[in-house]
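re the bet — no i am not wrong, look at it urself. input seq straight from the record:
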Amino acid sequence: MRNLGLGLAILLLAAANVFGTDLPRGTKITVRTSATVTSNRSEFGDPVDAVLAGDLVVNGKVIASQGAPAHCVVSAADPATGGKAPMPGSVSIRLETLETPEGTYHLSTNQYTREGRGRSRSPLGAGSSGGITIDSVGGVRPQSPLPTQDPNGVTLAAGGPEAIIPADTVITFKAAAVSSLEPKR
């Protein structure tokens, strides 16, 4: 009976190694967004589709390949306000799931935040200093005040009062907790 229990434990351990690996806390997951997210048009809870920007490797094993579907969510959206005291907008997204051929990882990650700056919509207007990224894991990082161009050739102001995360933005999230694979059924 004791050998049967030991054999079952070894079999379960082997199955866990074949079917999936946990994503440890601190794992960096880099995605590319598929749509533009803005502080004036996005709302809390809106879905944001993305794809894995490169292979995700944990302990020498490829967990998910480049192009794997990833799903983010708008975690905060504060529209810009006008009037006598205009306030720039702010928008944040958080990575929630990563799909693999074996199943889905439900993630707890930091959030990526973009803030609008200045009073002008001009890409290089006065007072335009770009936005900042504030996340719960990695700290504060400045963003470029230079305009970015979306895939359709439209120039988007990075320094206007509306906060914009353009489509095709590459963002690296950090896992804030261990995530296990939920196998496909």
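see?? The domain at 23-183 is CATH 2.40.128 (Lipocalin). told u. also Residues 2-19 form the longest helix (18 residues). so pay up
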